[in-house]
Prior knowledge:
- The protein has 261 residues and is an alpha+beta fold.
- Helices cover 49% and strands 19% of the residues.
- A hairpin with a 2-residue loop joins β4 and β5.
Amino acid sequence: MSNTEKSGESRNLSSVAAALRLLKTFTAEEPELGITALSKRLGVAKSTVHRLAVTLVSEGFLEQNPADGRYRLGLLLFSMGTLVRRRMDVAEEAAPLLHTLCEQSGETVHLAVLHGSEILYLRNIESRHAIRPRSYLGVRKPAFCTSEGRALLAFSPPMLIANALRADLQPRTAHTVVGKAELQRLLSEVRESGHAIDDEESEDGMRGVAAPIFDANGNVLAAVGLVAPTQRLTKQKLRGIIPMVTETAQLISSRLGYEAD
């Protein structure tokens, strides 16, 4: 990268930071602010604030009051906030059922959502066994090779699936499937069966199963996953675990207002 390109990138990042600071200036006590007030609070020139405000208005992050010209947060932020709220809702509704699944199975249970081409863990109920998978809230993993990720991708819009599989798919173990045609076939099987399996594809020595959670509109929202060491979660035992995982996902979906056909 040339010095000119680095300078341009630095300016862009600086502008992004300034725009975010501007958005954070609005409060419940001061929901509307003019250019002068924003300039004073941010400590930057009015011309800079005006340029940022115009850009944020054009993108829907801000609105301008036609009566006095002052600015307020745009409805786009509200719609984005509802996406976060949906995740919070599913995490709360799922909690007691995830604990029940963990107690009944004796194994570690996860709640995950899709974040681009990765999954993000919202809940983690650990097994009491000494040997168990270690995972933490907020951790991300590739969606294509995890049972939770496949359960989510299988019921996602085609464009989202295409984007996830367009990435450079790096194997995490010797068992990871990276062929796009094979992955498409696996996702088709997930749609038919209602569950996804990760057989040492994400972590060596670990086997998992996951099922999708749907919201009231029938959109896939999250996934329930169960994972355990292969020595304990044998393929025979897995067959008995699958109905427990899918039933848990169905119960959570029902609590969110989903009505299965």
